[in-house]
């Protein structure tokens, strides 16, 4: 039987948010916010500090109960679901929280195994360790990172370890909250390349909160702008600039925005047949090298 229009839309939009309202006491964070995230895209989410980017992410993944509104992920409603019903949806996404949020008393391998234990507690421990080792290497860390504790890792390595944990369950959807914050420019660029490469090879959809203009230009298919308690615009950067909105103009055409464009253009000129944001391999070494190039953040 052919899929109905509704089914097709739900399939195309991995995340659908309608009429979202969030408030903490008198402070209204979101009011009548709508957003669609398309299958297979990297959606950058930007907005001034405190506009509610992280609260939006937490609402989508069920850590924040909205005052009003509907959220569907993979076509399934997530607001007000019973824990047991939500589990099947939660298995299909991975989350990298701001700062990595690794458990400091667990090794990298044990951190990566946390979601496996949560959702597949009866899995053979040797298999869990094997899966963890695979995810560690997949994120560009050396195999010997597995037995290390977070305190023994650089900032870039911690982010990769957090990403390895987010990938533990082979998710279809990845949430990244400011993944390049605190990284040096080369480490940040390498992390961007890693994200793009994972999106392509694993067919991931990525919801990416960032303040990093280089990341937006380098890897995001579309960008959603949060302001005035809503998503005021979604589109490619060119589409957003055509809107003539003062905040968007200021954000993308300010000095840092211009620097990000200049970096992108310079690299496109250097590699006219393959427009790569930065020619930095997503290698473990790159994540720990000192800064050598300019990088722009807002
Ligand atoms: N648990 C909470 N209790 C009360 N207020 C909260 C809570 N979580 C977030 N807020 C408030 O909600 C607003 C939005 O926070 P949020 O962390 O989503 O902003 P953001 O856009 O991600 O900011 P930034 O870019 O600085 O990380 C802020 O004013 C914050 O203080």
Automatic annotation (TrEMBL):
Transmembrane regions listed in the UniProt entry: none
Task: Report if keyword Nucleotide-binding is assigned.
Answer: yes
User: Where is the region Disordered?
Assistant: 264-298
Query: Which GO-annotated molecular functions does the record name?
Result: ATP binding
Q: Which Pfam family, giving just one, matches this sequence?
A: ABC_tran
- Residue ranges of domain ABC transporter in the record: 15-253
Instruction: Enumerate the CDD domains for this protein.
Output: ABC_Org_Solvent_Resistant
Q: Which domain of life is it from?
A: Bacteria
Q: Where in the sequence does UniProt note compositional bias of the Low complexity kind? A: 281-298
Sorted keywords for this record are: ATP-binding, Nucleotide-binding, Transport
Q: Does the record bear Lipid biosynthesis in its keywords?
A: no
Record-linked SUPFAM superfamilies: P-loop containing nucleoside triphosphate hydrolases
Q: Which InterPro entries match?
A: AAA+_ATPase, ABC_transporter-like_ATP-bd, ABC_transporter-like_CS, P-loop_NTPase
| Endpoints of the signal sequence | none
Task: Quote the biased-composition stretches of kind Basic and acidic residues, using this chain's numbering.
Answer: 266-277
Q: What is this protein called?
A: ABC transporter ATP-binding protein
Give the organism the record lists.
Sphingomonas insulae
């Amino acid at each position: 039987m052919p899929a109905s229009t509704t089914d097709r839309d739900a399939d195309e939009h991995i995340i659908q948010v309608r009429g979202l309202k969030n408030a903490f006491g008198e402070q209204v964070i979101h009011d009548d916010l709508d957003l669609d995230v398309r299958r297979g895209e990297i959606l950058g989410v930007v907005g001034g500090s405190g506009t509610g980017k992280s609260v939006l992410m937490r609402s989508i993944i069920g850590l924040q109960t909205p005052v009003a509104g509907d959220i569907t992920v993979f076509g399934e409603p997530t607001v007000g679901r019973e824990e047991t019903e939500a589990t099947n949806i939660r298995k299909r996404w991975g989350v990298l929280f701001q700062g990595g949020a690794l458990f400091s008393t667990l090794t990298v391998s044990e951190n990566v195994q946390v979601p496996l234990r949560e959702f597949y507690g009866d899995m053979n421990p040797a298999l869990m360790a094997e899966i963890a080792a695979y995810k560690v290497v997949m994120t560009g860390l050396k195999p010997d990172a597995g037995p290390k504790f977070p305190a023994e890792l650089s900032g870039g390595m911690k982010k990769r370890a957090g990403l390895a944990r987010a990938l533990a369950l082979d998710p279809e959807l990845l949430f990244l909250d400011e993944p390049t914050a605190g990284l040096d420019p080369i480490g940040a660029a390498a992390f961007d390349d890693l994200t793009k490469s994972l999106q392509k090879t694993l067919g991931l959809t990525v919801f990416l909160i960032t303040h990093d203009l280089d990341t937006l230009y380098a890897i995001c298919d579309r960008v959603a702008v949060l302001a005035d308690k809503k998503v005021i615009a979604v589109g490619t950067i060119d589409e957003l600039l055509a809107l003539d909105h003062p905040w968007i103009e200021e954000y993308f055409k300010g000095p840092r925005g211009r620097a990000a464009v200049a970096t992108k253009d310079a690299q496109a000129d250097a590699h006219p047949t393959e427009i790569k944001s930065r020619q930095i391999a997503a290698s473990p070494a790159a994540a720990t090298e000192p800064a050598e190039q300019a990088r722009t953040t807002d």
